[in-house]
Amino acid sequence: MTTPPPPSDPPTVHLPTAVDAPADDLAPETEAKDTSPNRRLRWLVFNASAAAAGHLAIWSVTGDPMAGVHLVARMATSVPQLGRAVLTGVAAWAGWKGARLIRLDRLPGGSAFCIGAAFGAALWGQGTTPLIADAMAVAHPWSTLLAPLLTTGPVAAACWRLLDSRTTQARAPIRWVARVPLATVVLSSALYAPGALL
Fold first, then answer.
1. 3-class SS of residue 158
2. What are the protein's UniProt keywords (predicted)?
3. Cα–Cα distance for residue pair 173/163, rounded to 1 Å
4. Tens-place pLDDT, residues 130-159
5. Which one in 114, 117, 146, 179 has a CA-CA gap of 20 to 30 Å to 46?
């Protein structure tokens, strides 16, 4: 039986320390940390200036500095009608899909059954305005606070999807111009929501 050779000494590794590094290598890092602006402050200034520009534009067109807030108030009172429109669309889609799920489209004249199911479900959706108004009356303080979110949420989502998300790689001025509608909608909703309870 052969014996393995004895282990050799491991090589020594010399790691550089702060004392070994030249002073010029450390100086730029500390200077960069000291002079870089706060990211949160930049975000706040970016969005606040965009919202202010949007409100100034609305003010210059309408002559009312709170025109955006008044629009949110009018939208909030129409939540039952907006809910009816959404429920009508969802019910029509569900009627169409339900008819296809039970395979009515395979019968002779099957597409007419699918259209009829979608139409019937849409008619049901048209009658939901009193139901939504009653639900809002039962949940009074919360429905008043959530009404601006229910009405401006889809508008803000559309502004973000159509404008803001498409300019993420653009230069700062272009991103700022694309952020103005979204920031204006958010600020209008934020300004209206506390006053809805008063």
1. helix
2. Membrane, Transmembrane, Transmembrane helix
3. 13
4. 888 888 888 877 777 777 777 888 888 999
5. 146
Give the pLDDT band of residue 34 (cuts 50, 70, 90). very low
| Residues 44, 183: Cα–Cα separation, whole Å | 11
CA distances from 89 to 81, 96, 122, 124, 155 (A): 13, 11, 7, 11, 18
- Does the pTM of the predicted model rise above 0.90? no
Q: Are 94 and 122 in contact (CB under 8 A)?
A: no
Segments in the chain forming alpha helices (H): 23-35, 39-62, 67-77, 79-101, 110-126, 129-138, 140-159, 172-197
Domain boundaries, the chain: 40-197
Tokens 């960069």 belong to 32
Mean pLDDT of the chain: 80
**Residue in 171, 88, 169 with CA at minimum distance from that of residue 126:** 88
> Nearest 5 degrees, angle CA 107-CA 108-CA 110?
60
Residues 6+ apart with CB under 8 A from 158: none
Torsion angle, CA of 79/84/85/89, rounded to 10 degrees?
Answer: 140
